[in-house]
Amino acid sequence: MTVADPPFEGVGPRSLHRVTARLNSPLTSYYLVFGATVALTCIGLVMVLSSSSVESIASGSSPFTEFWRQAMFAAIGVPAMFVAMRVPVRMWQVLGWPLLLASFLLQMLTFVPGIGIGTNGNRGWIMIAGFTLQPAEVGKFALIVWGATVLVRKRPLMDQPLHALIPLVPGAGVLLMLILGGKDLGTAMVVMAIMAGLLFVAGAPMRIFAFASVGLLLGIVVMASTENRRARIGTWLEGCSASNPNVLDSCFQSVHGQWAMASGGWWGVGLGASREKWGLLPEAHNDFIFAIVGEELGLVGTLLVIGLLMTLCLGLARIVLRTDDLFVKIATSGVLIWVVTHSVINIGGVVGLLPIVGMPLPLVSSGGTALITMLAALGMVLGFARRESGAAEALAARAGLVQRSLAVLPVRGEARNR
């Protein structure tokens, strides 16, 4: 008598082969970025509603005030993402200089009385037609598009430090000075990180980064020397504990953010059941929305958000590694650095690993300009992913499969006759 073959023999290798084939598909990058973007935006809308409802009621407004505002910005950002997805690569290169000049103009408006608005010691917002905008978010997107454009043209001369630095560093320097004029340290750090990342991906000589690191360190020290920033950094270095005399002052936001996450446990106290959002945690729907996620959805919720951010970064990195177009490579790297720096600074500040500098969590925190510009930038990258080698053919094949599937379905009248 022979022993029968195991019923599932070979299933493991075949399944592994199918998974590997899907990961190697030219559409994998597109689906990773698109799926993570949609999921994070939806989670953000839900958490903005949950974290802002109590304060909205306390101020005499509807509990849906912040939610409807964020939903309106999402309704603008999502079409902007799909429009950006259709813009050809050549057109982005044409738009580089106009976008940069427009970002300069918008940033200058922050210093105009009656238009510029200051918040928490920073002057980085403008009020136009009743809407508050943060020009620095537009500046980040503009710097990426313009920087990739000029570095592509400078590629044959990138081995010469002077050509590698000009005009990128002067252009980014103007934007940086305008941002620093409003005392926005966090945004300035992101702009410097994007500029350094663009140069690195473009192939700038490594000795530039050795000198730049020293200047960067000195610059951060100078920028952090203001009284507000110095107090926050000093408090972070001392640690926020019960013995710290600043526990009810500079440590207040950090302590309540950590209490929110600690009280959430594994599964959270339940969606909408946060206690810290009842006027205890400042900026609960904005810079500290991750703490409310931890309190209401627990460790599982925070890991879900972090996992989606990592998925988004994986999709962006995959585009960088697979493309042969230098502009696509540099621009996508800029967006990747943008997402990473915002995520690390925000989450690091909430959990106490980094000083609090007021940085929103990408696609999740409340903030219209940040949401619209991030969706537009990701739309640009999704357009790059759709033009990846073999992606267009795969999309056309899948569209044809859907049409053929619908063609065999009976129409309503035929179904009744049957």
Automatic annotation (TrEMBL):
Keywords: Cell cycle, Cell division, Cell membrane, Cell shape, Cell wall biogenesis/degradation, Glycosyltransferase, Membrane, Peptidoglycan synthesis, Transferase, Transmembrane, Transmembrane helix. The chain crosses the membrane at residues 30-50, 71-89, 95-117, 162-179, 185-201, 208-226, 297-321, 333-357, 363-385. InterPro entries: Cell_cycle_FtsW-rel_CS (IPR018365), FtsW (IPR013437), FtsW/RodA (IPR001182). It is found in: Cell membrane. Pathway: Cell wall biogenesis; peptidoglycan biosynthesis. The keyword Membrane applies. It catalyses: [GlcNAc-(1->4)-Mur2Ac(oyl-L-Ala-gamma-D-Glu-L-Lys-D-Ala-D-Ala)](n)-di-trans,octa-cis-undecaprenyl diphosphate + beta-D-GlcNAc-(1->4)-Mur2Ac(oyl-L-Ala-gamma-D-Glu-L-Lys-D-Ala-D-Ala)-di-trans,octa-cis-undecaprenyl diphosphate = [GlcNAc-(1->4)-Mur2Ac(oyl-L-Ala-gamma-D-Glu-L-Lys-D-Ala-D-Ala)](n+1)-di-trans,octa-cis-undecaprenyl diphosphate + di-trans,octa-cis-undecaprenyl diphosphate + H(+). Its EC number is 2.4.99.28. GO terms for biological process: cell division. Its main location: membrane. Belongs to the SEDS family. FtsW subfamily. This is Probable peptidoglycan glycosyltransferase FtsW. It comes from Kineosporia succinea.
